[in-house]
User: What shape does this take?
Amino acid sequence: MTAHGRAAEESVFVRTYTLTRGRTRPRHLLALDTVLDAGPGRPGPAQAEECVEILALCRERRRSVTELAGRLGRPVTAVKVLVSDLLDADALVVPVTSPYAASDTDSDSDAGPSTQLLAALSAGLKRKWPDAIAYPQAG
Assistant: This one.
């Protein structure tokens, strides 16, 4: 690897580190296919410019975590940390309804709660009781 290539790679790593303020884990359990929608809240003034881009994309239409990472050209883990911050600020929400369904009719109605529903429930509980005991997440 050339010196220029190594410097560019280190620059991307440092940028990602500063983007997430050194955090490597989101506060919310987010899958790659978790779908997000713009919420009523606003991001804080100290949040990264990528947060504004995430909100703009989610205002156009619902987006998955993977799609946001691809559009921003950022690692999925970094995007999960930013999305977690936006969920805390109510700037993003995890829709409770089926994310891409055109109607409310669902053939698997007794299959149990969806991943999106469980993620929304988890985010709401963590927001309501932030000091509650956290159980280890499956990784």
